[in-house]
Amino acid sequence: MLEEDLEIAVKVVIVGNGAVGKSSMIQRYCKGIFTKDYKKTIGVDFLEKQLNINEDDVRLMLWDTAGQEEFDSLTKSYYRGAQACVLVFSTTDRDSFEAVEKWKSKIEEEVGPNIPIALVQNKIDLLDNAVVEQNEAEGLAKRLKLRFYRTSVKEDLNVEEVFKYLALKHIEKMRKENEQESETATAQPIRQIGLFSTGGSVSKSNNNNGNGLGEGSITLQPSKTRVASKSKNPLSRCKFF
């Protein structure tokens, strides 16, 4: 694990046009249920799922966002802080496929271009009514450099794989960032502020004199005035037991 007994929390947003199956997807994944009844999401909905990835405990916080334009200003505020994204379009909805790039841009405007994103073509159980060809979808995923999944929430096909992939990508990103931070900390030079010795005068060395001290090393000494003053003090010649 990244840290002993540490749970990794990942905020995942699910975006795409309305009626593509976003709510059904997280209901299937988190609760194992599916309903044919469509209910428009008002604003956002939220579910959680615990899983284990290569001995790392992961808690996925899944934010289901409304796909309708009237909720756009509201839902965009929930994108902030997202660490992964599921971008969904429907096999039977051409407009949802053509809106993929728009949704990708919305996410990246809020959280930056390095967020892991999975592109999902849902409702592949309805291929007889398909309005998006497989090569079109695969070509778009390749052009946008996104991992592509074809799912059926109804048949529970590939739904779990989508979220496992995003959890794994987040863990890999965390490890890489931790390694880079460690390398940066190791590479930082140690600056010598001052060196103290018992003899000589106050001086500044401007070259390496063979004792390992480089340019800018400073040797600090007690002042002669203090030493002289101390020698005149009769107590300084006494021993205390």
From TrEMBL:
Low complexity: bias regions: 198-210
Q: Which UniProt keywords apply?
A: Cell membrane, Cytoplasm, Cytoplasmic vesicle, Developmental protein, Endosome, GTP-binding, Hydrolase, Lipoprotein, Magnesium, Membrane, Metal-binding, Methylation, Nucleotide-binding, Phosphoprotein, Prenylation, Protein transport, Transport
Supply the InterPro entries for this chain.
P-loop_NTPase (IPR027417), Rab (IPR050227), Rab23 (IPR034114), Small_GTP-bd (IPR005225), Small_GTPase (IPR001806)
Q: Which protein, by its recorded name, is this?
A: Ras-related protein Rab-23
Q: Which reaction does it catalyse?
A: GTP + H2O = GDP + phosphate + H(+)
Subcellular location per the Swiss-Prot or TrEMBL entry: Cell membrane; Cytoplasmic vesicle membrane; Cytoplasmic vesicle, Autophagosome; Cytoplasmic vesicle, Phagosome membrane
Q: Which GO terms describe its molecular function?
A: G protein activity; GTP binding; metal ion binding
Q: Which SMART domains match?
A: RAB, RAN, RAS, RHO
**A single Gene Ontology CC term:** phagocytic vesicle membrane
Location of the region described as Disordered in the Swiss-Prot/TrEMBL record = 198-241
**Organism annotation:** Ciona savignyi
Record-listed E.C. numbers: 3.6.5.2
Report any Pfam family annotated for this entry. Answer: Ras
**Source lineage:** Eukaryota, Metazoa, Chordata, Tunicata, Ascidiacea
The family note in this entry says:
Belongs to the small GTPase superfamily. Rab family.
Oligomeric form and interacting partners? Interacts with SUFU.
As for membrane topology, the entry says:
Lipid-anchor
